[in-house]
Amino acid sequence: MTMESEFSHFYKRTQQQRLSILQQTRGLTDEQRAILEAHEAHADAPQLIENTIAAYQLPEGVAVNFVVNGRDYVVPMVTEEPSVIAAASNGAKQLARAGGMTATVSSRLLTGQIVLSDVKVYASIDDWVALHQTELLETAAAAHPSIVKRGGGPKLVRTRDLGEGFVSIDLSVDVRAAMGANMMNTMLEAVAKVIQTKLHHTTLFSILSNAGDQSLATASCSIPIAQLAQEDAEAQLTATKMAQASQIAQLDPMRAVTHNKGIMNGVDAVVVAMGNDWRAIESAAHAYAARDGQYRGLSQWQVNGDQLVGTLTLPLPVGTVGGATTVLPLVAVNQKIAGIQSPEELMALIVSVGLAQNFAAIKALVTTGIQQGHMRMQLRSLAMSVGAQDHEIDDVVTQLKTHQDPTQTDAQQILTQMRK
Ligand code: NDP
């Protein structure tokens, strides 16, 4: 049988039938099938994706000690990476002692684009769009009227000359509490039809932009330098080194990538816990990091008198309704844990997590080094990778600590010895 016939109409099969097909064709053992069955997808999961076979679980934890805009937060985070939640909580604790973080949201609009090709004279398109602005906005609103009833809707249409005969007609929409991808795409298609029939120009495609540069959130904090270490001289040195580490991320794209990865460790974990599209947030963040043509660190730390001042701005076009937020039952629970009342509050919290995460990472980087904090969790992972059970892990970790550069073979030997 060919793969095509084995998997023909796979999407119509029940979960059990799919497992049987996979077991037969991919040589899964009974134990492997049982693992898939034990990770049975939630009843709503098939609404989200296609050809579902299981629910792939990632651990969820909560970061604590967050104070943002004077409010205390407990932050649900979903991640497979050890130390991320510990570092976020630790960073937030140090910042809370200095009064916490302040976060603001400058605007919350989603932009979509209708792209035209083979444009001979850009000005003719620009003039036509300017003249028909009201009609185009009304067409967009009529395509998804419920968002207007909710107090949002299309706000602005403008054009951009992309060069080489391409023009983008950009529509900005207030999507209220949603991320807005689907409502935006519906509106764009309606506007594209008007452009085709009245402007008599074919459109190449219409889709939202994930740039998110009209959904920016900024977190900032100011921490007394004296708080960074017990000794004054050491605290001053730590602050100077942290500011220098931040400066290097502005100068060197190779370092900026890692700097930003550390920020996204926290950001993504909250975005996933809140049922949002983390690929969208990742793309937006990295595009924003390169907005002046060079990829740079997203956050900045500076010494200002006796304070270390940190800021982070991120495009965060997230939603608290719609998409997976409605389908995955954990999302409502996580919103409750975090006490999120609005999408703006979620944006403020996410950017603050990014800043606290970055504070902890940079401080560790220029003082104890990044491995020290990671080591305990790494050793736990090492112990688990050789099959140590819950009651054995601590003992294996304690013994691994005595090794210079512990390996899996060391962990295996320790475990074998312990079990004798
Ligand atoms: P939905 O299609 O689920 O639309 C939002 C829903 O929320 C609507 O049904 C709306 O109701 C309802 N709603 C309830 N209360 C509110 C409120 N206060 N404000 C706004 N809406 C409200 O989701 P989105 O349009 O947000 O699209 C997000 C999804 O699209 C994500 O899953 C994403 O992964 C996916 N996607 C992403 C793309 C990308 O990023 N490039 C491309 C395509 C899809 P009503 O209908 O009454 O207005």
TrEMBL record:
Catalyzed reactions per annotation: (R)-mevalonate + 2 NAD(+) + CoA = (3S)-3-hydroxy-3-methylglutaryl-CoA + 2 NADH + 2 H(+)
An example Gene Ontology molecular-function term: hydroxymethylglutaryl-CoA reductase (NADPH) activity
Presence of the UniProt keyword RNA-binding in the record: no
Pathway(s) it belongs to: Metabolic intermediate metabolism; (R)-mevalonate degradation; (S)-3-hydroxy-3-methylglutaryl-CoA from (R)-mevalonate: step 1/1
Alphabetically ordered keywords of this record: NAD, Oxidoreductase
Gene Ontology terms describing biological process: coenzyme A metabolic process
SUPFAM superfamilies given in the database record: NAD-binding domain of HMG-CoA reductase (SSF55035), Substrate-binding domain of HMG-CoA reductase (SSF56542)
Enzyme Commission designation: 1.1.1.88
EC class of the enzyme, as a word: oxidoreductase
Family under the similarity heading: Belongs to the HMG-CoA reductase family.
Protein name, UniProt field: 3-hydroxy-3-methylglutaryl coenzyme A reductase
Gene source species: Secundilactobacillus odoratitofui DSM 19909 = JCM 15043
Lineage of the species this protein comes from: Bacteria, Bacillati, Bacillota, Bacilli, Lactobacillales
